[in-house]
Amino acid sequence: MIRTLLFIITIMLGWINIPAQAYLSPSAQNLWPVMSQNFDIPASYIDKSDVQQQIDWDLRNRKYIQRLTVNAKPYLYYVFQETKKYHVPAELALLPMIESGYVPDGDSRAGAQGLWQLMPSTAYTYGVKMNYFYDGRRSTTVSTKVALHFLSYLYQMFDHNWLLALAAYDAGPGPVLEAIKYNQAHGRPTDFWALQLPKETEAYVPKLLALATIIQHPHAYGIQLARVPDKAVTTTVKINKEMNINTIAHLAHTSVNTVQKLNPALNHDVTPPHQIITVVLPAGKKQTFDKHLAAHKAIEKEYSHTHYIVKSGDNLWVIAHRFGDTETQLEQWNHINLNTPLRIGEQLQVSNKIVTPPAKKKITSITHVVATAKKKITTVAHITHVVPVKHIVFSKQTKKTIASNEHLYIVKPGDNLHQLAAEFNTTTYYIIEHNHLKTTDLSIGEHLELPNA
């Protein structure tokens, strides 16, 4: 009781020098005081010796507390909003500090993963996806929903007692139930403080209560908390197919490193095929991503494949130019070569796009016409019949300043956006946008700025 009175006096004295920002106001720009208003676990527990010892330890390790508040910054607002949706105490938003130090890719020797250190068995029970591409336990959104759902279940199991629910979250329900039965059989109290539990669990609950007390009254304890905005600092988008994180970063106009940091659930640099996942992006990037994804899909659709039935008079050159493909592409897609005779009625895989008849083609020199004739085993006369001489234009090149991580690429026969994007580890949308292209058709001799391979 004496320690409680001293604590209250300390807080009252601390209020004298508290700046306006620290008062518990819903309109405050800093999340900590706003969140503290929703703390719901009784403050009377701070008089317990285990809690006081943990507070003393925290105050001797101020840099540790500071680091926890810094780590929490990208995730805390979202987690706090989820505690309100689940109608659970806001103190639970601090639990990842105990579990993982608010590091979403943290793991344990026991096999737990993520902010909430979910075990595989718990994750499996709640339908969390864990596979070669993806581990939902490391997803901020997935793991938070599962953890709060599980904590709510434990709260019901232990007769609406949050301390017992927290103990069960750490040790599992079994050891807590056994400890309660043992005390009941020996006529002892069955509250958390009276139970014989694993030492880690006995320290687990006081750690959370001590952190909540310090965070609720930082000035009374002389603790500097890293400012966390009282607003969303991230947003989410749904992706339902395999997509490289480089593509995601391009479409969202953010960095690859940012995408990686916000999405530790991805085991590799691609999203899972045939699985819908939530991808986290910086706040304000959802609209940018959605807009550019729509354009990206349109380009991908243009380069998707369909089947063509060979007709009389067809050959690879004619079919390739009809669908805007190259003879090399048709060879690769259909496992044939130029010497393979085509049969009427045969099915060939071609690009699924509408191509206007070839009109103006940029050719760097007349020698290119001759070279093309030799390569295609045809004649200059045949080429100039398909592309009349009056339509042969010589591209005008201008000197451009190229970024250090890019180079100037000259379009060659057979090149297309899809192939160049794959070769230089970028996206078709990026090439079009970066080079201000008006069409997806490339002209021989055209200059493109492309990333260094």
Mean pLDDT: 82
Overall geometry: elongated
- Termini separation comes to 69 Å
What profile does the largest beta sheet have? 2 strands, antiparallel
Sheet/helix structural class? mainly alpha
Number of beta-strand segments: 8
The SSE string, one letter per element, is: HHHHHHHHHHHHEHHEHEHHEEHHEEHHE
User: Helical residue percent?
Assistant: 40-55%
| Total number of domains | 4
What radius of gyration results from the CA coordinates? 32 Å
Beta-strand percentage range: 5-15%
Q: Low-confidence spans: pLDDT under 50, at least 5 residues?
A: 1-28, 357-399
Instruction: Specify the oligomeric state.
Output: single chain
Number of helices: 21
Q: Strand order across the biggest sheet? A: 1-2
Structure description:
Strands 1-2 form a two-stranded antiparallel ribbon. The chain is built from 21 helices and 8 strands. It has about 450 residues and is mainly alpha-helical. Helix 8 (about 140-155) packs across helix 9 (about 160-170), helix 9 (about 160-170) packs across helix 10 (about 175-185) and helix 20 crosses helix 21 (about 430-435). The protein folds into 4 domains: about 1-105 and about 155-220, no CATH class; about 235-300, no CATH class; about 305-385, Roll (Membrane-bound Lytic Murein Transglycosylase D, Chain A), CATH 3.10.350.10; about 405-450, Membrane-bound Lytic Murein Transglycosylase D, Chain A, CATH 3.10.350.10. The radius of gyration is 32 Å and the shape is elongated.
